[in-house]
Amino acid sequence: xxxxxxxxxxxxxxxxxxxxxxxxxxxxxxxxxxxxxxxxxxxxxxxxxxxxxxxxxxxxxxxxxxxxxxxxxxxxxxxxxxxxxxxxxxxxxxxxxxxxxxxxxxxxxxxxxxxxxxxxxxxxxxxxxxxxxxxxxxxxxxxxxxxxxxxxxxxxxxxxxxxxxxxxxxxxxxxxxxxxxxxxxxxxxxxxxxxxxxxxxxxxxxxxxxxxxxxxxxxxxxxxxxxxxxxxxxxxxxxxxxxxxxxxxxxxxxxxxxxxxxxxxxxxxxxxxxxxxxxxxxxxxxxxxxxxxxxxxxxxxxxxxxxxxxxxxxxxxxxxxxxxxxxxxxxxxxxxxxxxxxxxxxxxxxxxxxxxxxxxxxxxxxxxxxxxxxxxxxxxxxxxxxxxxxxxxxxxxxxxxxxxx
Length: 405
Description:
Elements: H1 5-32, H2 38-65, E1 89-91, E2 94-97, H3 98-116, H4 126-149, H5 153-156, H6 165-183, H7 196-214, H8 223-251, H9 256-270, H10 279-302, H11 311-329, H12 347-378, H13 385-390, H14 392-397
Antiparallel strand pairs: 1-2
């Protein structure tokens, strides 16, 4: 079989970019926490790279992409990647190696649970986190990804999610909210970032990697790849400026962290819509993400929810917003293979997009809370007060990021 070498090369680069997002997330979160908890938050992202890779090889790929038409899960026909040869192609219309697609989708599975960790920063023991990571992937990410991308239930409804607004950001964001409610507030609250340059580095890596995340989701190089690429940058830029402007008005000073957080909110919100909306649509999504996600974080603060790194406000609310905007703004004028949103005459598509993302949010929230409750029955999920006071780097891992003076 002769592969399309251009598309294959592009997808290998896109896969590498998405892989880079998980270390980027580790730096982003690491800069936002206090000096005594940098390593404990970063190791959770890197651990996902190792363990999720194993689970994806063992059962993840087959549960998401093998069989199960119209259902909640795939089958186990390709467990441990059995029956897959180096010469297999993704499809007759997309002549890249199937192994490249498997690796690309694995990177999405790796970063999704890592996103949750910012919500319960400084409060969760590493062992229970690894158990939670396993259970959550098996019962939240794998079935939702199958329903959206693997020919499962949502795809039969006509739901579209270009690069993960439902499967990645909504699941992670509402799992984060549930975890915050379960573990409760920190005894030691350090809401000031210990290193804004680390946050900036993490944001840069995330933004850079997001081009592989969104543009790569076309799975080949064509005009939709270019559309997704430019829409990603425009939405992120507009959201960053919007968040900066609002926080400048409220706080009387332009805050760098606000600019960086706004950029991530825009990247999240454009993800499900990137290849389905016009450039004007991306501008609208960026403006909405910068303002609505900012308000969600303010609401979280008012309710005194200790979502340490604003995962719900940015990823949960941003993911839902992006899916709803896809239902409103998608247009076949820009992508004939997509759909027309409500503003272009298709109310049914809008209803299915909205229904699917709300079902996903509710399920992710409920399962996450139940899973943490059950794990806690066997081993304590939350660290003790002494460990929290000492800092998790030293108390849990016996390592420190910086020499303490």
